[in-house]
Amino acid sequence: SGFLPCGNCFVMVPQDRFFALERFGKFDRTLAPGLSWAGFDLCGACVAFRSISSRVVQSFIRVTTKTLDNVFVYVMVAVQHTVTAEGAQDALYKLEDVTEQLDSYVSDVVRSFVPTLSLDECFERKEEISMAAEEKLKAEMVQYGLTILKALVIDIQPDHSVVASMNEINKQKRLRDASQMAAEAHQVRVVRAAEAAADAAQLAGEGIARQRRAIIDGIRDSITFGTEDLWSVLRDAKRCIVWEQIQHSVPG
Asked: Does any domain span residue 1?
């Protein structure tokens, strides 16, 4: 509020404000930024002023509610609003506490929307909650001269005990995954070792089979081409077989 000294008929209105001109305590008109004619005054008894900012204001509303799965959450909503020249009179004379009124409408929307969602759905559908709050505010706050530019859910915080439980669940899940990966790696090593042992045994068997075929071929050749060296070949074959048996019976 203010008044003009005697004889001062003009008023300078800042660019970022709207002035309401009152005559004898009654609203007369809104003065736009710049130099305005206020009319004749008599020692401040005839003319008075009220002013309001035309800048965009951001208000933060914090709402406590409960989700469908019985988790208490804190929902933070940022509301951007301003006053236009057309709404300046209503903004000046109709509403005492803007933030309190915003809180009332936002809380109404959040507490009717969030309890229908699970905790995970609340995070997934933040935009829907924001749009519902914005539509409600635009419809209700226009009567108070406020223009709602944007309402946005900027944060959803579960109760501290719930956060601790969720962190513990995630920790146990990571430990379980790590144990499973270690077990799978061990299984792969065991399978590969068994495959390598089987391959080695197969190669050793093939080598022994080739040796025995060579002995048999030698015996057959001796029988075919003469018997003079038959007994010598048989002795050599017996020695080879005995030597192989000794090698396989000795550990390592």
From this structure: no
Of 137, 158, 179, which one is at a domain's C-terminal end? 158
Is 23 within 8 Å of 66 (Cβ atoms)?
Answer: no
Question: Please, which residues bridge with residue 158 across strands?
Answer: 73
Using one digit for the tens of pLDDT, what is the confidence trace for 169-218? 777 777 787 788 888 888 888 888 888 887 777 777 777 777 767 767 76
Could you give the CA distance from residue 27 to residue 5 in angstroms, rounded to a whole number? 19
Per-residue pLDDT at 229 exceeds 70: no
Choosing from 158, 193, 213, the residue where a domain stops is 158
Helix 98-113 vs helix 126-141: crossing angle, to nearest 10: 140
- State the sign of the Cα–Cα–Cα–Cα dihedral 159, 164, 165, 166: positive
- Pair (154, 67) in one structural domain: yes
